Amino acid sequence: MAKIYAGLAVAAVIGLVGGSALWVMQGNSGDPFAACHAGAVGGGDIGGPFTLVDETGATVTDKDVLTKPTLVYFGYTFCPDVCPLDNARNAEAVDILEERGYDVTPLFISIDPKRDTPEVLADFTDNLHPRMVGLTGSDAQVKAASLAYKTYFKAQPADDEFYLVDHSTFTYLMMPGSGFADFFKREATAEEMAERTACFVDVARGIGQN
After folding, report:
1. Pairwise CA distance, residues 101 & 192, whole Å
2. DSSP 117
């Protein structure tokens, strides 16, 4: 009798493990990019329509800008250290990708439109990467874009023009055709970003999205 119970227990465990594995595989099968994620991605939909102003002063929308895989970062040019370092890393990731045959756009969206005019943005982005795109806009336009990407920013109180702005520091990978793909924290290296971005681009090519 003990052997029968033991056999039933083993069968139950095997069935449970097998069922769990099947559930995991079935869950992952719905996401063609599952193998590219570094971990779980939560927080709901990220990204959406926006209307902003580019470095030439022209009004553009997300459809005009997100025409290829794009690394999107929200920051400001007067940022003393975080923004320049993060965007320099993003630019390095784009260069690594370019060497491997991937065309990815680095995009910088200012959350400080009061100081970040199109001309100021042009100087900032040109110093970081020749293909980096800079966008600004009215307070309402910038706020709408920030809300779409679920970013945070708040200007600190100041009596002069040298105020600082608190803001989130994620970089978002947006894919044409499918939208938000993944995000990168500040700790991610340029090489890590390039590897994960290349994975998404390869999968998108395989399923005809890019």
Report:
1. 16
2. -
